[in-house]
């Protein structure tokens, strides 16, 4: 059997992952919150099983694993920028629920767990660029601490119970279906602001550098990891290239052929100055090679948002 469940499957990343799994003839179940918006999955909803439930409910989790072979964990109830406002909620809603899931996974003898961690937050302020997987992990936001701790528990469950798993420390994905109204996702947010002639707010002087990866490039290793065997359990997943917010803004202006109203405000302490991932291990182990250059990815995202917003 090749039955996969994606926790958080109705979202931006999950819907693209679901689509690619279907193309490769996996049976797919998605688990998402009650009454979640179905827009992201409308084109293939009739080909999958949909479970609406509460990730924090032990019964919902246990029953969702019936007949499942592989688990994708994409759920997060917080964002990096807001997680420090209520770290107790971050732990209660993300870490504790994940521990329940891992206990159920062991009971059900699930073949493998694939966890999407955070390449931008688990390392903290980097001492080397690009950042390798063996770099120290000293996150400066609760979101990163929770992701780091889940990684550690996966290692523990593997050591004690032989649970097979892969962790992907994902950079900043962007592309179609990413919600431009969310606080996370600078590319769709900037594109939406320019399209609607709204003011763009930039924290700090715009020099913060990040690694951006087009969504269809990002999900390929997630799917390939189901059958992949390796001594390595943790992989950086990004483009391996870094761009400042100001550079990104100039690319967006070029692609859209539109100017932008920009306001710079005081920087935030939780923003890591630079985060660019070393993806050489993923290239070596899974023959990973991002195909979409950032300007092309911005153009694809722009054309998608034009249809959605205008």
Characterization of the model:
This protein has 2 domains: 3-172 and 212-237, 3-Layer(aba) Sandwich (Rossmann fold), CATH 3.40.50; 176-211 and 240-309, UDP-galactose 4-epimerase, domain 1. Helix 5 (142-161) links the parallel strand 5 (112-118) and strand 6 (165-170). The strands form 3 sheets. Strands 3-2-1-4-5-6-10 form a 7-stranded parallel sheet, with helices on both faces. The chain has helices spanning 12-23, 58-64, 80-83, 87-108, 142-161, 186-195, 215-224, 245-256, 280-286, 294-309; strands at 3-7, 27-32, 49-52, 70-73, 112-118, 165-170, 172-174, 199-203, 209-214, 234-237, 242-244, 261-265, 274-275. The mean pLDDT is 95. Helix 1 crosses helix 7 and helix 6 (186-195) packs across helix 8. Helices cover 39% and strands 19% of the residues. The protein is of the alpha/beta class.
Please write out the topology:
Layout: E1 3-7, H1 12-23, E2 27-32, E3 49-52, H2 58-64, E4 70-73, H3 80-83, H4 87-108, E5 112-118, H5 142-161, E6 165-170, E7 172-174, H6 186-195, E8 199-203, E9 209-214, H7 215-224, E10 234-237, E11 242-244, H8 245-256, E12 261-265, E13 274-275, H9 280-286, H10 294-309
Parallel strand pairs: 1-2, 1-4, 2-3, 4-5, 5-6, 6-10, 7-9, 8-12, 9-13
Antiparallel strand pairs: 9-11
């Amino acid at each position: 059997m090749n039955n996969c469940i994606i926790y958080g499957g109705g979202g931006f990343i999950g819907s693209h992952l679901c689509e690619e799994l279907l193309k490769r003839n996996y049976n797919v179940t998605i688990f998402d919150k009650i009454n979640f918006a179905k827009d992201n999955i409308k084109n293939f909803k009739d080909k999958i099983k949909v479970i609406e439930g509460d990730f924090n409910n032990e019964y919902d989790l246990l029953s969702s694993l019936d007949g499942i072979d592989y688990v994708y964990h994409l759920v997060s109830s917080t964002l990096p920028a807001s997680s420090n406002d209520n770290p107790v909620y971050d732990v209660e809603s993300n870490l504790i629920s994940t521990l329940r899931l891992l206990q159920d996974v062991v009971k059900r003898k699930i073949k493998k767990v694939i966890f999407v961690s955070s390449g931008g937050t688990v390392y903290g302020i980097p001492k080397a660029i690009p950042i390798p997987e063996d770099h120290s992990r000293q996150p400066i936001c609760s979101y990163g601490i929770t992701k780091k701790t889940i990684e550690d528990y996966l290692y523990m469950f593997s050591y004690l119970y032989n649970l097979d798993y892969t962790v992907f420390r994902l950079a900043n994905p962007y592309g179609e279906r990413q919600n431009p109204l969310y606080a996370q996702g600078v590319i769709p947010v900037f594109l939406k602001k320019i399209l609607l002639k709204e003011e763009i707010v930039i924290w700090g002087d715009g020099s913060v550098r990040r690694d951006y990866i087009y969504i269809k490039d990002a999900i390929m290793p997630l799917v390939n990891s189901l059958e992949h065997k390796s001594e390595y359990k943790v992989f950086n997943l990004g483009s391996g290239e870094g761009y400042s917010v100001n550079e990104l803004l100039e690319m967006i202006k070029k692609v859209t052929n539109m100017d932008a109203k920009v306001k710079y405000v005081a920087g935030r302490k939780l923003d890591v100055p630079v985060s660019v991932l070393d993806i050489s291990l993923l290239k070596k182990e899974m023959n990973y090679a991002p195909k979409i250059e950032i300007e092309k990815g911005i153009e694809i995202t722009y054309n998608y948002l034009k249809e959605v917003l205008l």
